[in-house]
Amino acid sequence: MLKRFVGLLLMTSTLTAAGAALAQVASSEALGPDARAKTMVDAMTLDEQIGLLRTQAGFGLLSLGVPLPPSIPQSMRKATPPGALGSAGYVPPVERVGMPAQQMSDASLGVGNLGGFLRRGDEATSLPATLALAATFDPSLALAAGEMLGAEAHAKGFNVQLAGGVNLTREPRNGRNFEYAGEDPLLAGQIVGAQVAGIQNRHVVSTVKHFALNAQETGRFVHDAQLDEAALRESDLLAFEIAIDRGRPGAVMCAYNKINGVYACENPFLLGKVLKGDWKYPGWVMSDWGASHSLAAALKAGLDQESPQDDPYFGGLKAAVASGGVSPERVREAAYRIVRSFYAVGVMDDPAKPGGVIDKDAHAQVAEDVALAGMVLLKNDGVLPLTAIARKIVVIGGFADKGVLSGGGSSQVMPYGGHLLDRRGLEGIAAFLAPVYGLSSPLAALKALRPDADVQFDDGTDVARAAALAKSADVVVVFATRPEEEGMDAIAPDLPYGQDDLIAAVGAANPHTAVVLETGNPILMPWLSKVGAVLQAWYPGQRGGPAIAKLLAGEVAPSGRLPMTFPASVAQSPRPAIPGFDPNNRKPLGLGIKVEPFAVPFPEGADVGYRWFERRKERPLFAFGHGLTYTTFGYAKLMATGGEGVSATFTLTNTGKRAGTEVAQLYVAPPGKTHRLVGWARVALAPGESRQVTIHADPRLLASYDLKAGAWRRAAGRYDLYVGKAAGSRDLVAQASLTEGGR
Ligand code: BGC
Questions:
Q1: Does the structure show a pLDDT above 80 at 14?
Q2: How far is CA 149 from CA 342, 363, 445, 580, 623, in A?
Q3: For this structure, is 288 an active site residue?
Q4: Which one from 138, 236, 288, 607 is the annotated catalytic residue?
């Protein structure tokens, strides 16, 4: 588009000064994003600048030409706007100055296409849940996943990806945890930051979202998340800060909820003071879809762009400028931030166009690599890997003959290779947005890997029948699934459709039972002692079937580690009951739920997840960082050094008989604080091999936020540290302490 525009300008014999400047910025990357954006925005009229700040819905269900169920709200009964590709958001171009349209699609797990309704028939590579990406503890895989996603978005014509969910897991029943990267600020920030960088490497803008403290879906449009500033800065804001540093996202999406009484999208502390002030964030702030509540106040606080909603506040922008309620400079600045990000990410110089070539095989391989590295072996009494002695293998339940489950909501990807909808017990809009299984069958993949074995399948709908078949097997693999979706939290941390009973009965019939969990959150596992192995497969994406089969059969050894604590009971949680939760008022996407604002307190403060467990001396079912593999590792000779940074050097040995990958984790407790993850190393070792490993602590993690001084400080005193296999595992491995001066 820019080339055509430059051509047009140069052909005009009477070039204006503004036109000449624009032609120069369009073709000169060397000028840099600030100067280029300034020239373009200065050439825009006020109307054109305002036009950039109002997103329209980028799809209309009427364009599908199919009858819509009565439960679809009136606001969604529209045609797709001309020029839009059919996605979450669209902002028309300003062709006169060479500003392309903003084509925004959801992207947590691939190029989104909710229920397949936004672009009929358009499929994309579906990545495993972001939780699986976090469980890899491997930012280089997150970068590769982001680059894959960015390339696909670019080839489909999208130049903004609504990716980068980095809300910490504070509520283990949150229906959207699968889109996020777990409970630890360093891990989540590193993984999501790398994913964002990957997307942007392909010249597509990425967001990070939902800024901030959007920890539950219950009452998601109105709840008031209450946390003091120091704790906020040391936890959820820290995750955003790390992700923004690493990924340099072009946009930040502010959340639906309130923070300490003020909606996130008009929150001067959050947007003005922290993001644009302390962090000097140069990109733009867009609201979540329907998350703005004011015009002048929101703009003043730092919101730059309003997402589609039926009663738009930014519709009054021109009148507000005319009456002096909003300054033209603020409008210009908001437009500038958008244009600047487009230049900074390379959108102008390498515009996305529909119809690009997609290397589907290479992209599927990325999805499989993430699935293989992100599944977590929680328990293994020796049932896995399935050895050659396992001649009769019985596979039960979870649609394992068909495919693998994915998470629901705006992040939904319609995977290449087809899908099926599970409409069991659903009506109305819930049936319209039913859970999606990608057609990647673990059963078929296992049969292909084990042609020597007799592999039989039972769908698990009749518990007695399944248990009887299980009895006759050498090894049983039970697949259990639990859908999660945007807009609602889970009623309880258990398995639906009677699957807990099914597993208990199968485990009682045959202790050589491995359970594969396709879930987006921790569950309680009342049957745990009855089964021999548990593989946490999350939602494993496009190539989930082959990835699960390869791990079960031992072709690849598991290497994922839990990015969130699995509690042993809901009573261990800081909020045993979800604030505002009503089991009878849960709807997909939260559509049509009207509740009064209510408070969500966070007694855990900055001690999210494993740090709360340490503070309360609680034992979880499985700890943050936990994950087994088919070999064992030993730690020895820990040496800790202090000074400017803290680091730990130790010897790691593969003490087993197979090659394997360890994720060695360094935890430090500053004086008077609980331990937190400050660094890790993913180390692959051959059997018997030893290596000296050094982990440097990220210095931000050693400091605390001093509210009075408005600064980060490292306290003087004793720093306890341990290197371990999981949070809380310090008795198993090595620990040390250092006495440090303050900084
Ligand atoms: C979600 C966002 C999403 C947006 C656009 C909202 O409901 O909270 O994560 O990007 O919709 O689909």
A1: no
A2: 18, 8, 25, 36, 31
A3: yes
A4: 288
